[in-house]
Amino acid sequence: MTNQMIQNPFATADGHDDCTCAEGRRAQGLTRRGFLGRVGAVGAAGAVASMVGPGSAMQLAFAADYVGDTVVVLSLRGGFDGLSAVVPVGDPNYGKLRPTIGVPASRAKQLDTMFGLHPALAPLLPLYSAGSLAFVQAVGQPARTRSHFAAMEEMENAAPGSTLRSGWIDRMVGVTGAPSTFSAVSLGSGGAPKSMLGPNPELVLSDLASFKLSGPGAAAEQARWATAITTLHAGAPETVKAPALATVAASATAAQIATDYPTPATAVYPDTSLAKSLKEVARLVKAKVGLRVATIDVGDWDMHSGLGASDKGWMFDQLTALSKALVAFVTDLGDKMSDVTLVTLSEFGRRVAENGSGGVDHGHGNACLVLGGGVVGGKVYGTWPGLGAGQLDEGDLAGTTDYRTILAELLEKRGKLSSGEVFPQLGTERLGMFKQRV
């Protein structure tokens, strides 16, 4: 198994990296516990060897013991500014604290008496009105830190006060029954996040088409590799043979999915890495290969300067790309969204007051987006703490809802799971934002 170097999640071709903090730029030197993106036969075999144990070589497409929603986690890397997305236009202090970068009430798309949606997210309004989209405002985590590294690690471990070192997604997979090769998949080029750290199987894909036994080649070449690997391991011990045969089967499954599940013409995905990854998730869902959780990193949110206005600029472009990708994903899946729940998470929010560079620095409280057929949508959840001087948390929006509360209710209601093993020492308070799966 080899680690992949993570691409900088805070930089884009537009040069926004120059506006991020030094720590954000250093993140491009991180390595992750990633398994494969575009790999050859030896790399693929080594990757799957770390994911599947003896006797599980052909356990690819079936996960009959788990009947819950497929959970899709979008990690908005860099510190998402929830106050730009879900705008507290009803709070009189908002405009005072953000005189140049704030979204005016006249441009925000009204959600309720307190909140409006950034105009770049307007494509999501039909989903909100239809009741399949909700927001949670003032979300935080117990371990308050403004360090990208520390905050991401704490959020993905999701077990403050305990001795657990595994990631919450790995623990989730562990309590959903015997996992298959495609139970937990990380899409994109960044490798597996720390939330997948642990003993359970996980797969890292850049895309389905490039998951091959060798480099670029025709089907005949793939068949030759499959035959050679199978023959070579015919008399090998089970501990060696099982992962090798799993590699062959997984590659064949991925190739078949890429061919058999084209994207419908009605789903117009933008040309972004997020959209490409969501398209692959949709294929996996439609193929019924036992996908329980998928993760996608969405970078470029570390907007210390040049955030932009409500009708143009960095934040506008980022939110536009996000909304278009989500609409295409929902259109692509159609009625299959009834078994999918998508959640956005970010390591922390941003300061309430804008800085002198037209941006916002690292903060605390944030907003989450929750989308799916099992969501009790059309509502902004959470307790709004206010933006008055006496209501701020050291200049930040206070976090009044633990992000784990959202995830725990999701697992309980939509997966019919006990969340205690996944989120130890979490209280029993829930928001009531998910329908009970029957």
What key attributes describe this structure?
alpha/beta, single chain, disordered N terminus, 3-stranded antiparallel sheet, Alkaline Phosphatase, subunit A
Query: Approximately how much helix is present in the residues?
Result: 25-40%
Number of domains: 1
Number of helices in the DSSP assignment? 12
Main beta sheet: 9 strands, mixed
What class do helices, strands and sheet pairing give? alpha/beta
CATH 2nd-level architecture? 3-Layer(aba) Sandwich
Low-confidence parts, pLDDT < 50 over ≥5 residues?
1-15, 28-64
Average predicted confidence as pLDDT: 87
User: Quick one: how many beta strands?
Assistant: 14
Give the overall shape, derived from the CA principal axes: globular
* CATH topology type: Alkaline Phosphatase, subunit A
Strand content: 5-15%
Describe the model.
The chain is α/β, with parallel strands linked by helices and about 450 residues long. Helix 8 runs antiparallel to helix 9 and helix 10 runs parallel beside helix 11. Strands 3, 7, 8, 9, 10, 11, 12, 13 and 14 form a 9-stranded mixed beta sheet that branches. Strands 4-6-5 form a 3-stranded antiparallel beta sheet.
